[in-house]
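I'm stuck. Please check this protein.
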Amino acid sequence: MTAFNRRQFLKLAGATSLVAAIPRSLSAATPLSNRVVIIGGGFAGATAAKYLKHWDNTIDVTLVEPNATHYACILSNLVITGAISMNRINLSYDGLRNRGVKIVQALATAIDPVGSKVGLSNGTTLDYEHLILAPGIDFINPNPAGAERLYDPNLTPHAWKAGPQTTLLKNQLAAMPDGGVFVMNVPKAPYRCPPGPYERACIIAAYLKRKKRRSKIIVLDANPDIVAEPHTFGTAFSQTYAGTLEYHANVGITQVNSSLKTIDTTIGALSADVLNMIPNQKAGQIVFDAGVVNDPTGRWATVDPLTYGSTVYENIYVIGDSQATAQPKSGHMANSQAKVCVDSIIRAFVGETPDPQPTTNSACFSPITETEASWLTAVYQYDPTTHSMKRVEDSFGEAAEPSSENYEHMFHWADNIFADSFR
């Protein structure tokens, strides 16, 4: 914990990204034929599409996304407990359309990196000069070979991609009998939204204390300790929710039977009334299909953080959760990386070199109770010696304790990033 204070955090959270303030005036020099295709319409892809048109409206921008709207993971845990509705996190692409972005509702099925083409599920093909991959995460089946079919996310939802899965988990929680057991896990880092599983555990524990007082929640963490905000969440687990929440660290999962709602672990077998299984994660499938997953774990795409260009193909970029820069995988960080990437592409169109010292930032709020929230933030700066993004230690901080004021600010922060990415 540093001297970073709440006022600094609110300034950073409202700014969304330090790169956002960079004005662009390259339109006159940009050929009309310049084409950028973006695959994935989450925070990374939507922000990239918006800022390409915002900074240079002459660029031909196409966003490929199979869903008609985007359900934000941000605030989605509050949907599960009924604190807010699904409409609150349903984000339209109309703002991007109004800026001149072409929205193609289809699934990208193939990439030809040599011919610079993208094949779509509707049978069409798109040409590109620059391709941005922003598909988010995909999941690794938690079961060993031969038992893969025992795991079914439609029976034991992860709700780690917001939308139908969120509603499914909400309904299962509501139907759970008083006295029932809710079991959830924390996947092995890195995963999407480091505080997210602990946040979910807290607000579900709060829900159980209010509506199902004889029930309990068991949290199985694959990591040796709480990954984010250990003081805040540790205090919540051991004090605020003592008797309702049971936390276990360093737990391995060996098999999941979704139909029986049982889970075999290194601390024994458990049965659940609701099993919220959040699998370990990897880059979206299209990133694998493009042949750019090449980090040591075989899960993520290695990129140059000056541009987010793939280290395999120079005109393919990977932003958001699928990249391997060791920065947090979060909606705010995806928004920030998108702006660095877009800035570098616009510079490339006119023969300029990338910004030699880009910065990114990640700020988020986490509800801890039904009326209080905490926050966490950090800024990352490019290190030319290691060619990597390093956290600026003086920027790193978290709330001293949860508060009702933070809970109120949480919604303003969410609205800011929703607008900055999608409108």
About this structure: The longest helix spans residues 331-349. The longest strand covers residues 373-383.
